[in-house]
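Marked as duplicate of an earlier ticket. Keeping the data here for the record.
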Amino acid sequence: MNGFDVRLRNAGPVIAPLVASLIASLLALAPGLASAQAKPAPATVRVAATPIANYTPLLVARDKGWFAEEGLTVTWTMVSQGALAIEAVFGGSAEFGSSSIFEPMVARGNGLDIMFAVGGTRIRNAPPDNSGLVVRTKDSIQRPADLAGKKVAAGLLNSVNHVHMMEWLAKGGVDPQKVQFLELPFPQMPDALFQNRLDAVWAVEPFLTLMLKSGNARVLAYPYQENIPRMDIAHYIAKESWLKTNPDVARRFKRAMDRATSLLASGPKDERDGWVAKFTGMKPEMVASVNLPEYTTEFNVASLRANLDLAVKYKLVKPHDVNSMIWKP
């Protein structure tokens, strides 16, 4: 045994308490250090959203405290259509926007750096769908050919509804050019149909259910389901440049939204209906009777590609890679 060994052994009674004290101090500090590391930096996120059932997860994530857990203060401004949400996101007045799948793909193909950032909703797996083509109950219209020369409203021209309506007609052997399409807001469609100013309308909920309950209307077709089964219908968008600059904030927003979307997708119907009623302003009894879309956190890329093909077919945009506009955190 050398002198160094003796000195180290003799120092043991002095060092041991010091080491134990140091370990205890570190253990005491550890929870605070871990908490400081785990707590995300505060951030504000603005969303441009349309007040329809598809975007109810925003309310769920806020009221459940899931945005707060991610260190996010999320606010939303209501807009009347997806095109305005795209405008808000591209212009910088919102970080995220809500939109049907069609407009962002057209925007991307026309040079805007818009991406699908967070999953939202898709059409229902089987009839009845969340929207449908409606005619008067006593009319003789039974098939696509019967609409030739008729007046039809399917929302905005060149919208996802309008393009799918044209495709449904084409599949039925009807030249879409032989149908007169008129732009009309969805809330005005029931009166226009029942007053014989239109021959058919593409009705969305809750107007679809209200029209059918009146006994004066019947569904002629569910074009989405016939054209592209299981297709995505609405998602949340953001600018690619913003996502690249703010990946952590974007991931935190997505985590909270995915939790909310999953709750609506798999939770009890009564709870889901309550959230939808609160977000949309619909009466709970009305929500209970309408056909809600299916909530999803995933992107059905094949359906997005098929919709882009329709946009290309009807000369709204040039071909591009849909997969490149899906954000992959």
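See parent ticket for discussion. Residues 3-38 form the longest helix (36 residues).
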